[in-house]
């Protein structure tokens, strides 16, 4: 039996995609070898690669002045690459501290330049997002984390930054909803939540920002080199990009990001509704308007209940519900590929569990 996988990442993938990978693993479309054995410059891989790039552009409706690149190193490498490439002049950039991932991005940037805390959610224990953010005078960019995977917060409206580029780590909500892409100078995301298996990192960069990459940067760290070479400067993570392409094809077949968002809202509502109607048995610490549709966090009155919950859910095939070790509680990650049946099963189980206590 296939389990419902609520892990925060790597996370569940569509079963059709896994089947297609299996079918083509040994002999890719009659080539007599696997795609992961062939050259990344072969015509077979080239097609997969360009399809993946094209589908990102199509799904997001990207204007022509944005480049799509695939990199390795996870979103974590972007914590270094973003300041290395995009900090200019006085090397000042603004960062919003909205949770654990934002803090990691900030910490790396602070080692490379003048990273300024434009917002710190410490006072509200990282349960709220700001409605707007004021920027430093000579800011190179504003960095936000569109969805905090651990804290369960998600930006619904993005700050207005005028001429200052907005840069977003979208690792845990990329392609989960339509986006006002023109508001962003750059978007990046590790693949392993909404896009596919770990390995590839997606980066979307506006052309004018590529001009900021200094020739002094070592090659791999330089966005402009990756963009010029269509992400083939070195060997890209071919298996991950292949799987990402299949996931994107499925999103397109579902009807695009409007439909995907509707499905995500439906799944999240099922679970939040149980929390809100549980008369305080389950509590979501996040301010209502900032609740994530991807990572739903909740607590119970004591840790024993939470442990019992996680273990009973696991026994009936719902895994990955333990909250992150840094915050405790429970967390249900319901990314794009979680079927509605999984969200329904969890909501029903939550009701039964509360009734039994
Ligand atoms: C929002 C966010 N940013 C960055 C990361 C780090 O990503 P990676 O493991 O791809 O480096 C994660 C991983 O969970 C994340 O959720």
Describe the structure.
It is a single chain. The chain is an alpha/beta fold. Helices cover 37% and strands 16% of the residues. The strands form four sheets. Strands 2-10-9-8-5-3-4 form a seven-stranded mixed β-sheet, sandwiched between helices. Strands 1-12 form a two-stranded parallel sheet. A two-stranded antiparallel ribbon has the order 6-7. 46% of the residues are buried. The protein has helices at residues 15-25, 43-60, 74-86, 100-112, 207-210, 223-228, 238-254, 257-276, 303-315, 340-355, and strands spanning 4-5, 66-71, 92-97, 114-120, 139-145, 147-148, 153-154, 166-169, 186-190, 201-206, 295-298, 318-319, 330-333. The chain folds into two domains: 15-254, Type I PLP-dependent aspartate aminotransferase-like (Major domain) (Aspartate Aminotransferase, domain 2, 3-Layer(aba) Sandwich); 256-355, Aspartate Aminotransferase, domain 1 (Alpha-Beta Complex). The mean pLDDT is 97. The protein is globular. The site of pyridoxal-5'-phosphate has 11 residues, from helix 3.
């Amino acid at each position: 039996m296939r389990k419902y996988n609520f892990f925060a990442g790597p996370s569940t993938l569509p079963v059709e995609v896994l089947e297609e990978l299996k079918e083509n693993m040994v002999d890719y479309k009659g080539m007599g070898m696997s795609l992961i054995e062939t050259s990344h410059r072969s015509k077979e891989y080239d097609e997969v690669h360009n399809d993946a790039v094209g589908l990102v552009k199509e799904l997001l409706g990207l204007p022509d002045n944005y480049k799509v690149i695939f990199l390795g190193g996870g979103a974590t490498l972007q914590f270094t690459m973003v300041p290395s490439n995009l900090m200019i002049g006085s090397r000042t950039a603004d960062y919003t501290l909205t949770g654990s991932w934002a803090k990691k991005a900030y910490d790396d940037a602070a080692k490379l330049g003048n990273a300024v805390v434009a917002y710190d959610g410490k006072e509200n224990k990282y349960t709220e997002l700001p409605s707007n953010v004021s920027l430093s005078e000579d800011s190179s960019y504003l960095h936000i984390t569109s969805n905090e995977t651990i804290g369960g917060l998600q930006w619904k409206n993005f700050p207005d930054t005028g001429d200052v580029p907005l840069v977003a780590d979208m690792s845990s909500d990329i392609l989960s909803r339509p986006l006002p892409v023109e508001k962003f100078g750059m978007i990046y995301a590790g693949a392993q939540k909404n896009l596919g298996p770990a390995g590839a990192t997606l980066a979307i960069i506006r052309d004018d920002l590529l001009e900021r990459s200094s020739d002094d940067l070592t090659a791999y760290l330089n966005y402009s080199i990756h963009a010029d070479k269509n992400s083939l400067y070195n060997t890209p993570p071919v298996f991950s990009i292949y799987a990402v392409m299949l996931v994107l094809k499925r999103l397109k077949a579902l009807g695009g990001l409007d439909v995907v968002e509707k499905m995500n809202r439906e799944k999240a509502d099922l679970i939040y509704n149980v929390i809100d109607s549980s008369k305080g048995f389950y509590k979501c610490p996040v301010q209502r308007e900032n609740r994530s549709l991807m990572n739903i966090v909740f607590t119970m009155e004591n840790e024993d209940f939470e442990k019992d919950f996680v273990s009973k859910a696991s026994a009936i095939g719902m895994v990955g519900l333990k909250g992150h070790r840094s915050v405790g509680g429970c967390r249900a990650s319901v990314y794009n590929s979680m079927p509605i049946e999984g969200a329904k099963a969890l909501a029903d189980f939550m009701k039964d569990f509360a009734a039994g206590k």
